[in-house]
Amino acid sequence: MTNIYFAPMEGITTPTYRKVHRKYFGGIDKYFSPFIVVTSAHHLKKRETREYIPFEENMVPQILTAGGCDMAWAAKMLKNLGYGEVNLNLGCPAATVVTKGKGSGLLRDKYKLEKFFEELFSESDLPEISIKTRCGFVYHEEAEELAKIYAKYPFKEIIVHPRIREEYYQGSPNLESFEIIKKKANSPVVYNGDIYSVSGYEEIIKKFPDISGVMIGRGLLINPALAEEIKEKEDYANTNRENTGSRMDNNRHNAGRGIYNQRISDFMSELYDEYMVIMSGERDVLFKLKELWTYLSKNYPDAAQEYKAVMKSKNGAEYKAAVRRIIG
Ligand SMILES: Cc1cc2nc3c(=O)[nH]c(=O)nc-3n(C[C@H](O)[C@H](O)[C@H](O)COP(=O)(O)O)c2cc1C
Q1: Within the chain, how many helices (H) and strands (E) appear?
Q2: What is the distance of C-alpha 266 from the center of its chain?
Q3: Which single residue of 60, 185, 221, 295 has CA 20 to 30 Å from 9?
């Protein structure tokens, strides 16, 4: 069965979000932390350390850095804390990141990228290293050169989001570029980008049956049960080969919208309570949850007015009343 990974999303898939998601929804083989910035000072801000302390099962910390030695330092530090795998961010498109030669900025100069990996892999005692990469900085044609570089190193997995930096999150993922990296890779390859439904997942698996997994970000923010729905359908197909229709008891397709909405409602209200404990006030909590609703609302296309009320809410009571109008 193909692995399903929850994509790292800065400011959204926080330790709190991951904890509460784990409690209410299944189907995720690994969660990835949003990027943790590592500089040559080898000192991490308290805010960053909260991403990986306390230790979290089936979570892969992700590092954003410009130096191979700095990556090695962070990876070993995380290994000492119990993390068997550490991921390198080669995708972040933000200008402030790119100009410092981090994230997708590392893809710009292929010589420097190779030097990064030479430095990293010259160290001993590393945990397993995976990368999350775009297919190029300016052109998709860069995929060829990147593929050759990646093929030289012993990555645990190569997660490919087949857009280039210039595209940010626009346009469609370029499946030809994905194929180029996958064909040349000497490591298992994971597909990431624009999977929003069970059928979207199935299309990718049909096209690339030999990938080791898919990573899903926004699709899981919109429907937090998506991974579970995918796995349930696969399980059912595997045990009932003659009838590959889905028979999922607990999700929206079968049990009806009522039970599904109740789970979403419990999930969102626990997130509210958890954030109230760790954040400095209701305003901050509302800001955080409204960001989530920009995604979750796409799951409720008939509730445009109610969604507006959620976004306009000024305090917890208003917020909760507006949410109840959407999910009960
Ligand atoms: C708000 C936001 C924050 C993100 N933060 C990160 C991050 O910290 N690290 C990373 O590698 N990718 C980050 N991404 C990219 C996602 O992990 C993912 O690659 C991208 O959204 C495409 O996958 P999707 O179409 O399934 O969402 C972020 C994306 C968004 C929209």
Answers
A1: 14, 8
A2: 22
A3: 185
Count Cα atoms within 13 angstroms, Cβ side, for 82. Answer: 8
List of residues 6+ apart from 287 with CB closer than 8 A: none
- Residue 8 sits at φ, ψ, to 5 deg, of -75, 135
**Is the C-beta atom of 219 inside 6 A of ligand 1?**
yes
Residue 119 C-beta-side C-alpha neighbours within 13 Å: 16
pLDDT interval class at 245 (50, 70, 90)? very low
Predicted confidence (pLDDT) per residue in 12-27, tens digit: 999 999 999 999 999 9
Taking the alpha carbons at both ends of the chain, their separation in whole angstroms is 35
CA distance 71 to 107: 16
Residue 6 pLDDT exceeds 70: yes
For the Cβ of 116 lying below 6 angstroms from any atom of ligand 1, the answer is no
Tokens coding 130: 């995976």
The residue among 249, 268, 269 whose CA lies nearest residue 259 is 249
Q: In terms of CATH architecture, what is 3-239? A: Alpha-Beta Barrel (3.20)
Closest residue by CA, ligand 1 atom 21: 217
CB 277 within 8 A of CB 288: no
Compute the distance from residue 97 Cα to the ligand 1 centre, in Å.
14
Tell whether the model's pLDDT for residue 185 goes beyond 80.
yes
The residue to which tokens 């989530």 are assigned: 292
Dist CA 229 CA 296 (whole Å): 16
Q: What is the DSSP string of 113-180?
A: HHHHHHHHHTSSS--EEEEEE-SBSS-TTHHHHHHHHHTTS--S-EEE---BGGGTT-S---HHHHHH
Q: Measure 91 CA to ligand 1 centroid, in angstroms.
A: 9
Residue 161 near ligand 1, beta carbon < 6 Å = yes
